[in-house]
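lol so apparently i was supposed to do this last week
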Amino acid sequence: MILSILLCFLSIAWTKQDWKDCGPGKARFHLDLTWETGSPDGFAREMIHVNGQFPGPTLNINQGDAVEIVVHNHMPYNTTVHFHGIEQIGTPWSDGVPGLSQRPILPGSSFTYTWTAYQYGSYFYHAHSRGQIDDGLYGAITIKPSLEEPKSFGTIAKTQKDLDSLVKAEAEVKPLIFGDWRHVTSSETWELEQAAGIETACVDSLLVNRKGFVNCWSREDIQTFTSPPAKQVLGGLNYTDKGCLQPQVLIALFPGKSPTNISSLPKEIFEVCTPTNGSTAVIEVSLADNEWVAFDMISTAGFQTLTVSIDEHPLWIYAVDGRYVEPILVEAITLENGERYSVFTKLDKPAGDYKIRSSGIALAQIMSTTATLSYAGLVKQQKASVPYTNMAGGNTTADVAFFSQAQQKGFPASSPAKTVDQTIILGLVPAGASYLWSLNGTSYSMSLEDTSPLLFASPSTVHSNLTITTKNNTWVDLILNVTTPGQPPHPIHKHSNKGYIIGAGTTVFNYSSVEEALKYILENFNFENPPLRDTFTTPPSATGPTWLAVRYHVVNPGAFLLHCHIQSHLVGGMAMAILDGVDEWPEVPGEYEGYH
Ligand SMILES: *[C@@H]1O[C@H](CO)[C@@H](O)[C@H](O)[C@H]1NC(C)=O
Ligand SMILES: *[C@@H]1O[C@H](CO)[C@@H](O)[C@H](O)[C@H]1NC(C)=O
Ligand SMILES: *[C@@H]1O[C@H](CO)[C@@H](O)[C@H](O)[C@H]1NC(C)=O
Ligand SMILES: *[C@@H]1O[C@H](CO)[C@@H](O)[C@H](O)[C@H]1NC(C)=O
Ligand SMILES: *[C@@H]1O[C@H](CO)[C@@H](O)[C@H](O)[C@H]1NC(C)=O
Ligand SMILES: *[C@@H]1O[C@H](CO)[C@@H](O)[C@H](O)[C@H]1NC(C)=O
Ligand SMILES: *[C@@H]1O[C@H](CO)[C@@H](O)[C@H](O)[C@H]1NC(C)=O
Ligand SMILES: *[C@@H]1O[C@H](CO)[C@@H](O)[C@H](O)[C@H]1NC(C)=O
Ligand SMILES: *[C@@H]1O[C@H](CO)[C@@H](O)[C@H](O)[C@H]1NC(C)=O
Ligand SMILES: *[C@@H]1O[C@H](CO)[C@@H](O)[C@H](O)[C@H]1NC(C)=O
Ligand SMILES: [Cu+2]
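anyway here it is w/ 2-acetamido-2-deoxy-beta-D-glucopyranose bound
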């Protein structure tokens, strides 16, 4: 207790907590947002800093804490901050979505988010105004579980000593933030897309814990790692020097009525790759501290899908999206945008440096980076570590195990209701160009962010083709129907509470409900302890239509966003508002409703 209060005082300088909040049950933070030059990958650009740093400070919270986060916007842009994966039970006005749960935080203004940390585990905060994640506004949130939460570590530990070591490792879990990075700002990206009429489906580098470098692959490597599906899409052309699809290939993939103008794009966007030295992250671990180490692996990537691994260090996944699972042993994990995996790894190798690998595996762009896991303070062996994954994120030997969604079983087990009150079928389709997207044929315009928040209205007045309406304490199926060919996986993120992924398929979903589908394709469903997540990734539709079925319990009345977490798809309109529990619509506190 005394120690934790002391630690709290020491952290005041770091997170700008107030001294009076160093008491039990409270966590208070100030986030000062500034727009300054930074060069995370060795290339200088204007970007967002949080409390003068990038990424922002980790918010360390205890389960059960009353959390208060005061955001000060010193930038020349509107902004908001969303707490990704936090359910916001009873506090929908603190969800951080402009036009839905609050008015934007104007330049020079502040906003106070308050919520209770009912959950434990790995989360992150990020900007939720336009595509501002691509400007660097994000940081980890670590919520330490209360002593009452049962742990699933018995499967991993062989001895009591192991178990103690795992518990200690979890208490000291370190965030490993995997991101991607662009050399243009998010608003420039959107302007370029509108002028060219195509998605800028090409980023500049990958980052690990804010560090990286522009890693230009040799022509030979690009040819070697061009996958058969990529060759098919490229149709005789090669990936560009940045490892990207040629702009004309994107136009052919997403034919539309709107005009395109490739010549308006600077060559640096898709083609010219200029290497930088940048820097690489070194994660120091010490055998003297503990035999096991825990990482919260978080994807903050705006665009890329990332396959990650640590050379010679198998990973025990013990939590997914902030909730314990029956531990799964793997060597590599593919992170979709916004996903979190909490992992243990044993420090039982000879002292030395081991590469942490992150590879972009989107069909639209192949790329890679590395960081280092370094055993500190010991005489190190000098030989290079042996990889599980290659530059393209593929396995290096036949026995490398990748995490697969089907393996995920919650701990303790939990299952959804057997029947539902409502089925919502949503078509995922491009909206006439590669940079314009929709959910169910309707595009959610980003200009809605500047309109009066739906949460402040009477839900009966705002029903439209951009809203989904549910009643409280009902069960709802969301069927994500990917019907057009050539679509990438869409990581569809649901704000507020999580949903169970109960089914998936790679054929047309021509049924009116899950109940009907069960009569024909029972084998595509699982209702026993299915994956419970806040991001639902649809299977890619390269070879034909696909679908994903999600079942959730409406428990938290409020206006929440359902959207693709790929920033260019979100800005392109792939979002809808879920008006949950309209029959129990909350009264918004005056200070939130009256905010500027
Ligand atoms: C693609 O790259 C290969 C290898 O560098 C080269 O031989 C070939 O001519 C290129 N194809 C095109 C269409 O540029
Ligand atoms: C295409 O972009 C170029 C460069 O910005 C511009 O000069 C040209 O007018 C544009 N063409 C059309 C048809 O808009
Ligand atoms: C990268 O580092 C090398 C060696 O220190 C140096 O010669 C080179 O100029 C640097 N390149 C850039 C782009 O900074
Ligand atoms: C990768 O794994 C697959 C399936 O196990 C196997 O067929 C393939 O040979 C492996 N690749 C390498 C390079 O070992
Ligand atoms: C989805 O689109 C279909 C066809 O336009 C429409 O009938 C249905 O109501 C839409 N669903 C929602 C939830 O808006
Ligand atoms: C959605 O509603 C808007 C406003 O009523 C309308 O302009 C638009 O055509 C509708 N879109 C679809 C796909 O029904
Ligand atoms: C910021 O938000 C205000 C209020 O919603 C809006 O009027 C204004 O246009 C926005 N400014 C920018 C630069 O988007
Ligand atoms: C899903 O999309 C396909 C292709 O457009 C369509 O045939 C099917 O009817 C859709 N399913 C539902 C349930 O709307
Ligand atoms: C769905 O489509 C498949 C293939 O076209 C067909 O075999 C099946 O009978 C259809 N099911 C329903 C319920 O229409
Ligand atoms: C909504 O339903 C949930 C689940 O039954 C319940 O816990 C909660 O109290 C309800 N909320 C309101 C405001 O009635
Ligand atoms: Cu998407």
